Amino acid sequence: MATAGKKRGRKKKKKNIMMTKKMNKLTKKFKATLQLRHQHCTKLIPQLISAISSAHSFLLRHDLSLLPHQSLSLESLISSTSTSISTIFSLLNLPPPPPPPSRATLASPPTDPTSPRAAECWFQRFLAADSDTLWAENFNITKPSFTLLLRLLTPSLSSLSVPPNYALAAALFRLAHGASFSAISRRFGIDSPTACRVFYTVCRAINENLGHLFELKNDINRVIVGFGWISLPNCCGVLGCEKFELDGDFMDKNGFLIVQALVDSEGRF
């Protein structure tokens, strides 16, 4: 019995030694793989930073030429890629990457780096372009309609620190494209909290000044009763949305118009 116990002990000890050697071998292999990946990442990161910088430069130089959904998508990709690279830098214990170039160095052509237009925000350059097509693409509204709406809402926007035309344009851009407040701040030269405050102030002004144009507000009880008769209790309106393709030169080949409508119990807009 004692001999059998010793044999089992030696066998167990030998097994443990083999397992330890195997673990050490795997650990060395894992470290070698990590080191190799570290080297690959170190070589690729400068190329990625250069690509991001080029994309950022392209965006700043051509933001008026790009369609809103194109510029917003590119902004999102640049932002997410920059965040990922910063995470990689922290994992590899590398110094933080350089920040992307600012508009002050990229907005003007290299031949004229001191041009005052370099410091202008997107909306300033948009107004200078004065293009009817740009108004429709960016705000889903014509310039005469914008001017009329601005005249109606200006008294209600006087409390803002932002000019009324900037405030209205910022709100319309967000409504038209679902842009984030950070995207609004970059285009209109304001910070994100101000962009948020401007948006809700404009929406409230529209509701207070133009709400009387909608019969649902003044005749809500009739509408609720009407929906009740068709088995839709406590309903005060039906909101629908439809997409229509557009032909011609107004938009590109994939252009379309989204129409949103609110109707009462009798199907009236």
Automatic annotation (TrEMBL):
This is Protein ANTAGONIST OF LIKE HETEROCHROMATIN PROTEIN 1-like. The lineage of its organism: Eukaryota, Viridiplantae, Streptophyta, Embryophyta, Tracheophyta. The gene is LOC107764690.
